[in-house]
Amino acid sequence: MRMAFKTITFMCLLIIGQTGTAQTVNLRVTVNNLKEVSGVVFVSLFSDEKSFPIDGKEFRKLPVRVSALSASCIINDLPFGEYAVAVFHDQNADGICNLGLFGVPKEGFGFSNNFKPKWKAPDFKDCRIELLEDKALTIELIFR
User: Fold this and answer.
1) How far apart are CA 111 and CA 120, in angstroms?
2) How far is the C-alpha of 29 from the C-alpha of 16, rounded, in Å?
3) Is 8 domain-assigned?
4) Cα–Cα distance between 26 and 132 in angstroms, integer?
5) Cα dist from 9 to 6, 12, 20, 59, whole Å
6) What pLDDT is recorded for position 3?
7) Does residue 6 belong to any structural domain of this protein?
8) pLDDT at 20 over 80
9) In which domain, by residue range, is 75 found?
10) pLDDT for 89-141, tens place per residue?
11) Would you state the pLDDT for residue 104?
12) Contact call for residues 44 and 74 (beta carbons, < 8 A)
């Protein structure tokens, strides 16, 4: 009888401990101002300033097939913390953000906080968002 009580107590403590440590959130990203219904919107989530906004250094990257003049996705199970989001509308679906003169994107792009860079890519702090609970974020595309 005593052994069964210890086993049940141990199992209850184990279950309580496991539910208390799973602290993740979900981020819904909606991208507006698409110029045409074609291609893919890439949503890139960065978790530190050293990697932002370098392609290939994302914490998570999701392609979203375009079926309307806005696109959205949910990034699930993110640990609490600070992040920055960069998006671009890959209109020709070639998998890259095509650049023009002086490295300016030819396709629509945007950042969290709807930060609008002037002469260079933004810094992480410009686009930083804090995730401590589920959050919805809307980004308006920029065209130059």
Assistant:
1) 13
2) 32
3) no
4) 10
5) 5, 5, 17, 39
6) 53
7) no
8) no
9) 25-140
10) 999 999 999 988 888 889 999 999 999 998 889 999 999 999 999 999 999 99
11) 84
12) no
- CA 140-106-59 angle, to 5 degrees, is 60
List the CATH number of the domain containing 82. 2.60.40
Q: Does residue 131 sit within a domain?
A: yes
The three-state secondary structure class of 56 is coil
Pick from 26, 37, 24: which is nearest to 64 by CA? 37
Q: Is residue 55 part of a domain?
A: yes
Look at the chain and report how many structural domains it folds into. 1
Number of C-beta neighbours around residue 41 at 10 A: 26
> 74: which strand partners?
28
Which DSSP state fits 116?
-
Residues making up the chain, counted from first to last: 144
The reported pLDDT for the residue numbered 101 is 84
**pLDDT given for residue 86 in this prediction:** 98
